[in-house]
UniProtKB/TrEMBL annotation:
It comes from the Eukaryota. This is Uncharacterized protein. It comes from Photinus pyralis.
Length: 318
């Protein structure tokens, strides 16, 4: 076989699951009777084997060493299959690894469900900054951590007088936290570029963001030197929970979210910042609320009504 053919054989073989691999190897080994018997031998050879490799609809007989090398398997694997063939089996038995029931320390389903219910009892919210990049990611209180949650879990087990097997170690609790949920703690501290975060930025991307900063700087300076232009930037601050408590009971309760929209106004002889704040029971944080804040600022700031040209810079959140 050429190198290309060997790679094709190996690639197709490892594309199969473990049971399909065993079946292929099983059918590739042919049992036959020994052609020669030595006289006077203490122990006679009872079986002889041929090894075939299928490629391009053609069966090629190879030696055992080549057979093992082509499929990258061990001699022990071949010997085991030979014993099954010699025993008269028509097919190899299914793989039973990981399917036995002799695991005394395995976490039972009721314990796993109890852990999952406890983790689910903590209120989680979408992040203001990452909801576009990872829509399924949610964040727990920044005052929490896995060790703290595990400690609260043990306290709950004690309070509810649960069986000793429910009082799992922190590593088990962490396993279900990492594998059953898409949770994190706290919030990203600042806006980030998803392209740069993925490490896929190129020269064009770098030039684009540099050009954007230059355009923003030009608009700001233009507003400072013109009588008819006003320059405004909008940014919605990350949400803050109210009230901010560190008691264990507060971790299980739904907290109210506080929103803060910062508006920076730049014009000739004007450079000021206005904050619009509200809570989630008053309004949401959609585009209607953002422009309601902008409208309110234009009503309060009388100097804005004298301008006939408005430039607004904002991120995707606002």
């Amino acid at each position: 076989f050429t190198i290309v053919e060997r790679e094709a054989i190996l690639t197709s073989f490892y594309a199969l699951d473990i049971n399909a691999k065993n079946c292929l190897l099983f059918k590739s080994i042919i049992l036959s009777q020994p052609k020669r018997m030595r006289t006077g031998a203490v122990k006679h050879k009872t079986a002889s084997y041929k090894y075939t490799v299928a490629y391009n609809a053609k069966q090629t007989i190879v030696c055992k060493r080549a057979f093992v090398s082509l499929y990258q398997i061990s001699n022990k694997k071949v010997d085991l299959l030979q014993s099954k063939i010699k025993a008269g089996l028509a097919a190899p038995p299914p793989d039973r690894r990981g399917k036995h029931n002799n695991r005394p320390n395995k976490t039972t389903e009721d314990v796993a469900a109890y852990i999952i219910r406890h983790i689910s009892s903590f209120p989680a919210e979408e992040s203001h900054y990452s909801r576009n990049c990872n829509i399924h990611k949610k964040y727990l209180s920044p005052l929490l951590s896995v060790p703290i949650m595990h400690k609260l879990y043990l306290e709950k087990c004690h309070a509810e007088e649960m069986n000793e097997r429910f009082r799992v170690k922190e590593c088990t609790y962490r396993f279900y936290f990492n594998n059953e949920f898409n949770l994190s703690f706290g919030y990203p501290k600042s806006d980030t570029c998803s392209t740069c975060d993925k490490g896929s930025s190129n020269e064009e991307h770098i030039e684009n963001y540099k050009a954007a900063f230059e355009a923003q700087k030009y608009d700001r300076e233009q507003a400072r030197n013109s009588d008819n232009i006003v320059y405004i930037t909008l940014d919605l601050q990350q949400t803050m929970p109210l009230p901010r408590l560190s008691t264990s009971k507060a971790f299980y309760l739904r907290q109210m979210w506080f929103y803060n929209l910062g508006i920076h106004i730049v014009a000739k002889n004007i450079d000021q910042t206005v904050f619009c704040t509200w809570t989630e029971d008053q309004a949401s944080r959609g585009s209607s609320e953002i422009f309601s804040c902008l409208l309110r600022v234009s009503e309060v700031e009388a100097s804005l009504k004298e301008k006939d040209h408005l430039i607004i810079w904002t991120d995707s959140c606002a």
